[in-house]
Fold:
Amino acid sequence: MRGCLASRVSAVSFSRCLVLAVGTLVLSGCISPKAYVDRSLGDVPPDKRVVVANPHPVQLIFEFQTKGATNSRGTKALAPQAMSAANDSRVFSEISSSPVSNGAVLSIKINNVPITDDAAAKGFMTGLTFGLAGTAVTDGYVCTVDYLPGGDAPRVTTQVKHAIHTVIGNKSPPPNSDRAASLDEAAFKVTRQMVSHGLNQLAADPKFK
Structure:
């Protein structure tokens, strides 16, 4: 199980790890997984980016979850990507991991929800056929951005969805997807895109102040 457990974001994908765990036990690492990032979301187009006239500081609290449960390894691995994407959005004047003077709090949660059924069984069959019968696994990700401004201003919440497709063995890549150099890179890219879109939607909300 070296390929899954040694990765910095190995705990990020629940169903992908099931596939790799079974497959590598059979093949001893002979089959390498290929990660593809779904192209449906993409980056925020420059002409669609919302410009905030008077940005304020905010405290960022980030959490990664697997099927709704806190995943500390995933949180640690992806928190820098979330912070970087939040800073690049320029929605806030300052983003801190500590409380800020105006009391504003930005909570970002990314929940990994396995989409493909019987992932472990499919991975096992791929192993038995030495990759001749390929396996494709899709992991869904739901990013919830929750903004609590200081004072009496209302809470503002937005949500963004994304997906990573993992291919093992002799299987064509899913349509409408881009190959990532590694599983880590795929997770980093998905995090950045989801946070960017989530904050852009937040800034466009009439309730955002």
